[in-house]
Amino acid sequence: MSTNKVQKQDVLQAVVVANFFHKNFWPAADGDSACLLPLVNRPLLHYTLDMLESSGILDVIVFCSSGSADRIKASVQRASGARRLNVVYTTSDTCRSFGDVLRHLDACALIRNDFVLLWGNVVGRLPLLPLVKRFKTLRQSGDKGAVMTIVYQRSSDPNTTSAADQTVVLAADTGRVLFHNRARGKINLPLELVLDNRTVDIRRDLVDTNVVICSTAVPPLFADNFDFQTKDDFVKGLLINEEILNSTLYAHVVDGDGYAGEVFDWPSYERVTRDVLHRWTYPQVPEVVDKYSLRYGNVYFGDNIKLALTCDVGNDTVVGSDSKFGSDTRISNTVVGKNCTIGNNVVIENSYLFNGVNVKDKSVIRFSVIGENCTIKENSNISDSCILGNGVVVEPNTELKQKRLLSSDSNNKSKKLSAKAFVYDAENNSDSDDDEDVRGLTFRTRSWSINSGSSSDNDDTASVAASIPDDTCMFYSEVVDSLIRGFEDHVHCDNLILEINSSRYAYNINYREANFQVIRAMLTLNSKAELEALNQVRYYTQLQSKLDYFMPVLRNYIKSSDSCEDCLSAIEDIAKGEELLNTVIVKVIHHLYNMNILSEESILRWHEKEEDTQFAKNIREKANKLIEWLKDAEEETDSDEDDSS
Amino acid sequence: MQNWLEFQAVVMAAGKGSRIPEMTATKPKCLLPVGNKPMIYYPLKLLENAGFRDTKIIVADNFLVDIQEEVDQLGLEINLSFVPIQSDKDWGTADSLRHISDNILTDVIVLSCDLITDIDLHQVLNIYRNNNASLVSLYFSPSQDEQCVFTVPGPKSKNKFEKDIIGYDSKTSRLLLMASASDYEETMPISSALLNKCSNLTLCSKLLDSHMYIMKRWLVNYLVKDVDISTLKGELLPFVVKKQLSRHCKNIALNEKCIEDEEDEKPDIFNISKESDIETNIRSMSCFGNTYNFEEIIKCYAFVADSNIGIRANTLYDYCRINKIIHKLNINLGDEKDKISPEAEILSNQFDKETCFVGPNTKIMEKTSIKSSTIGSRCTINPKTRITDCILMNGVTIEERCVLHNCIVCHDAVISAGCELKDCLISGNFKVPSGGKHYNEVLTAMERLMEI
Amino acid sequence: MCSIISIYEFTKLRVVLIKNQLNCVSCTPNSFFRRAFDFVYTPYSISNKRHTDSGASKPEARKSRSLFKKMLDIDGKTHEMLINNYISNLKIKKWESNYVIAEKTVQLFRHFIDTINWSTTIELLNQLREYGFQITSALPLQFIVGNIIRRILNIVREEYTAARKSSEEEIDVQDSLHKIVTSEDDVDDYNSIVPELKLSIFEHLDEFQMEIESSNEDISKQALEHIHSNEIILTVGKSSEVEMFLKEAAKDRIFEVFITECSPLNHGRQLALNLSKHKIQSTLIPDSTMFGIMSRVNKVIIGVDSVMANGGLRTFNGCHAVALAAAHYSVPVIVLAPMYKLSSRYLCSYNQDAFNEFVSPAGVLNYSDSVVSKVDVYNPTYDYVPPENVTLFISNNGGHSPSYVYRLLSEIYHPLDYDLSVQNK
């Protein structure tokens, strides 16, 4: 018995959290069963369990919500790799976050030893045992306070991967995590970190894998600190209170010795699917784990499929078994589930069709996810990251863009489209759901279309920023960063002002120059790619909403008549390079005037100023109407005053 | 005639050694002995080993003759041309370089006379060549072994490291940040422009700057234009490193505007760095190199030498240290007769040949014990003395019954009979009165009364 | 719980079984002798020892028998589970070398033959073929598995025929070619009951297992015939056969070896290290310089993953280039292939999915390389070398030319077993 006990203690456990506590995949999958979402026609959880199995871990604790426990159990039993795993399930209904799960684990006392903690959405191959061994030796010989090794994957393209928007600072020799920041802007690194460590790596190229190796001290730490809700909370709390909690964190960066990808929203779903098809997860690739055959160009065909002779199958495509394709149908960069029926003349690109989907003739599907057993009838066009829940029936000749569709309307939140298609209206329901909800909905156009993406963005700012001395230029880019972040994260404008001021001092920018640059930054917030998609009207409404949002900032900077002048010249300067702004420049000025930011005098003075370039003349001509109106208004007020006096 | 040369070498030897005034009061820093050679031997030998045939040496004019004389005796094959600069003008390294800019026709490699290393210079040059760099700077990571813990002669003082913070891309070793810890208070802001440029930035606070730079010719042009810059490390380098991050004017029209705007202030570095059309052509036709580097013009790189030993002997601590580990370095110090001159007269029976250097015309009497010491020329060591871990420069006389441990005795000093000195520094021409016992002291002529 | 019974236990089992048989089955003295002979020369010294030590003591035998039974009971694994286990082990690359795979396959099928409930040979054959089909269709790229299965089926068939004949006439060990051909003419339905078939199959399996085990040794014994003094040998990557072959030759001859790294796995480095430890002058070269060195090379000696039915090779990536370079300089290419690597399959077209194995691109390119999202990277494991570029095969039975492979195949596999999916009647 005693030997048995010793053995048990040596057994390495893994805890798989199979509840994601977010609704990123909704309506294709719920939060608590999203780990069963098929990735290349195989539930995500199977990848995770297979990874554990092949890395030599046999004891697995799966945490799931009690509502989905049965489905998960049933699915795990079908998984090929899980057959040899010793899976224990634990459920709880009170858990609302990742932190709660660990508190639950602490309460259940299921953890006997150092353990591997991961989510049920990790795909890849990782040599976990050596990592655990290293962690153990670290705890035994080096740092007794080490509680966690966080596994990061080095990302392929740090500038475009949305998952990589975090800054991690590591001690180069030990791999200890010194600093962690979720934002993408600039960071303020405590000086002592740099001075106390021989070498410090500031890394922006790391992506979370959601695999961590924890000591037994981790669940109690969560239990003691009730404010730890997520892993980020934990990391942050530990780094801030390092001395108090006496715990340290380490990082392991996977690069070359494995691959791990985390699927937490649709963009990452797309990225990991691509990596699976490109075989980075080998041996977890379709034709090894399931019955597929591999063709040139990463095309995987299941058993017993029927392709019409004129059907064109492009690269990076998976066709599940028993699927049928009609003639003149084109598919590329697409995963098609099992038992799908695709009609004639259908185009499917960059999409994910789950099992049993039926697509009728002449339909087009691009950048979308089609849930199980959906039917898309003739001549429909579904594009721009539509997500269709299970069992939706789309009537003929429907056009859908950026929509989420459900098959039934459970709580009257949705707009009825047809008998079995309800559009989830994000705008109407925005109060009840958080912004997180919208986040999942962004399929990018593939990053390898070379002209889009980061490069053009850079050029964009570069051309705008040309001819500015560099300190000013740096200041400008900082301001742009702050504003973008402020707008996206709804940072309070007072904080933004503080931030901008601090950069102003850092780069030693004088007051007027700062005014000029802030206005410029505000007007150029839209990236070029966005601009192209917008027409004039929408551009203006968007610009206006941004200006309104930043009104306190504007008010802070544009106070005196001098600053008004700066503001106007900045607008003019930008309009020179921006076609769209050029068209609405008068509106912008008018709006600013209405908001009492620009004074009449300054506008008039600006207008009267003699300019010799053709462009400046044009603008002034355009503004003539406004000026006339202003003058009228002035006279009116004057006369009003006269009257009243 | 020399145009085909890839690099021209310049050795900066006009430094006054202001951090070791005790030793450099009467002797230029570059002539202080390290092992059996003057310090300047090492950078010259480094160049010679790398295949350089010529080098310029910048020296202070008051020491020109001394240095010339001594360097000529070293038997180096490399051709030397000495450039004297006025010692009273207090010129920095950049000023010196500007002074000789007319004679610099190619890319230039600048070394400091106090650089002692066994690194292979080609490694550094290759970094420069591979990346078409504008500037490469050599760094040494601090020595890992803590074995060479020793007491520095002279009064005890804390050994202060310069807290320079160097940031480079760990993948490409591109140098992206140069700052001093004293620039910041509690936090160190790192701009997003920098972080966007480099996704894996490595910050080091303990690197040793070797003061060796390889630069493009246009940087010298820039120096000529911008007369405000007086030192390479302190001013030019941070400036150029910072400039990498800023964007430059693209079209010519804007360029012209820039020039107009800034004519009175500073010349635009980007205009100077513009490459000639033929170079653009060459580059666009070759399939070599990283594509993403093409757009950039200013590219600084750092070479961080790990395993090699490199020291700048500009402080007392480093000077002592290099003297203790000079045996271990992979530098050819000459054969046996260079180590212990045949012209020396050694009568001692307790003389450790392995760890000592002895210069010519030195007389070591019988009944002396000498270990781990460097002894210059024309010294006289009288009987019944014991010398361990010491550096004796030229012309030192040690009288009878002296015990010296871990001392630096500068040239022509006299240690009178019966002295016992431990961890002391005796400056040039000083005479230690007999029977004195000194520990951790600096003995100089000027402050003689104060010190004793 | 270990699902695969170790060699040790198997040998134990064999002892027990045979003892049982000895007790209950009457047999001719002749066959008894043969059996006894087998015991003495059994491949496992440990079973030898056990046999001679324990003699025929019955309690011991019973004990080990019950132990084995118990083990099976605890194991409690159905054939289905064993097959699944076996397949997933192969899929996750638990067993790297072909030799181990071969051994494990023999062990698995030995267990099947032992535990399948069969009375007539055709039942056994059909069951084995079904299992074989299951396994080979799940592992289309593991040729070796199919080879072993077909070989075992052939062993069953041979033993059956031999037993049938021996019941009619005294067995002639050296059947003439003519006799074999003529005897096969009368089609056998494998329906007759042969009493000691199981036993003789096991014996034959032991021989087979011994053949697998000693194949490398047998091959390396021929080394001196092929490697002469002061020759320059070129080899690709790392192959255990080649390593042993060279080491054997180095005992008597002095020669020089060039080893290509065989990127991206770079196994060649390991071989170079091993050889140089063995005091063989070896030079590691990058794959790309192979052509430049070829003019100086006397012989190319390579290992192989499997030999196709036409004499072509499925072998490490990069071998085709080497073979072509060798052809250019008229350098002989010698392939070391133990008999169990002979496959009955053809490469009908250059159909990659049935032939090659694409592994993770990680060896070619780091995932963090920024080009990863913009390019498709393929990392194939194997190369096909057509038979015309191969000069000679050296198997454990001697040297063969590629055109002779078909003959070897018909000797070791039964034509009926080429396609496992079709059930014989």
Automatic annotation (TrEMBL), chain A:
The keyword Lipid biosynthesis does not apply. Keywords: Cytoplasm, Initiation factor, Protein biosynthesis. GO terms for molecular function: guanyl-nucleotide exchange factor activity; translation initiation factor activity; translation initiation factor binding. It is found in: Cytoplasm, Cytosol. GO terms for cellular component: cytosol; eukaryotic translation initiation factor 2B complex. Its main location: cytoplasm. The keyword Protein biosynthesis applies. Residues 469-640 form the W2 domain. CDD domains: W2_eIF2B_epsilon. PROSITE patterns: W2. Pfam families: LbH_EIF2B, W2. Belongs to the eIF-2B gamma/epsilon subunits family. Component of the translation initiation factor 2B (eIF2B) complex which is a heterodecamer of two sets of five different subunits: alpha, beta, gamma, delta and epsilon. Subunits alpha, beta and delta comprise a regulatory subcomplex and subunits epsilon and gamma comprise a catalytic subcomplex. Within the complex, the hexameric regulatory complex resides at the center, with the two heterodimeric catalytic subcomplexes bound on opposite sides. This is Translation initiation factor eIF2B subunit epsilon. It comes from Aphis glycines.
TrEMBL record, chain B:
Residues 9-143 form the Nucleotidyl transferase domain. Residues 354-433 form the EIF2B subunit epsilon/gamma LbH domain. Transmembrane segments: none annotated. CDD domains: eIF-2B_gamma_N (cd04198), LbH_eIF2B_gamma_C (cd04652). This is Translation initiation factor eIF2B subunit gamma. Keywords: Cytoplasm, Initiation factor, Protein biosynthesis. It comes from Aphis glycines. Component of the translation initiation factor 2B (eIF2B) complex which is a heterodecamer of two sets of five different subunits: alpha, beta, gamma, delta and epsilon. Subunits alpha, beta and delta comprise a regulatory subcomplex and subunits epsilon and gamma comprise a catalytic subcomplex. Within the complex, the hexameric regulatory complex resides at the center, with the two heterodimeric catalytic subcomplexes bound on opposite sides. One of its GO terms (cellular component) is cytosol. GO terms for molecular function: guanyl-nucleotide exchange factor activity; translation initiation factor activity. Belongs to the eIF-2B gamma/epsilon subunits family. InterPro entries: eIF2B_gamma, LbH_EIF2B3/5, NTP_transferase_dom, Nucleotide-diphossugar_trans. It is found in: Cytoplasm, Cytosol. It comes from the Eukaryota. GO terms for biological process: cytoplasmic translational initiation. Acts as a component of the translation initiation factor 2B (eIF2B) complex, which catalyzes the exchange of GDP for GTP on the eukaryotic initiation factor 2 (eIF2) complex gamma subunit. Its guanine nucleotide exchange factor activity is repressed when bound to eIF2 complex phosphorylated on the alpha subunit, thereby limiting the amount of methionyl-initiator methionine tRNA available to the ribosome and consequently global translation is repressed. It holds the Pfam family NTP_transferase.
From TrEMBL, chain C:
Pfam families: IF-2B. InterPro entries: eIF2B_beta_subunit, IF-2B-related, IF_2B-like_C, NagB/RpiA_transferase-like. GO terms for molecular function: guanyl-nucleotide exchange factor activity; translation initiation factor activity. Coiled coil: none annotated. SUPFAM superfamilies: NagB/RpiA/CoA transferase-like. Keywords: Cytoplasm, Initiation factor, Protein biosynthesis. It is found in: Cytoplasm, Cytosol. Its main location: cytoplasm. It comes from the Eukaryota. The keyword Cytoplasm applies. One of its GO terms (cellular component) is eukaryotic translation initiation factor 2B complex. Component of the translation initiation factor 2B (eIF2B) complex which is a heterodecamer of two sets of five different subunits: alpha, beta, gamma, delta and epsilon. Subunits alpha, beta and delta comprise a regulatory subcomplex and subunits epsilon and gamma comprise a catalytic subcomplex. Within the complex, the hexameric regulatory complex resides at the center, with the two heterodimeric catalytic subcomplexes bound on opposite sides. Belongs to the eIF-2B alpha/beta/delta subunits family. This is Translation initiation factor eIF2B subunit beta.
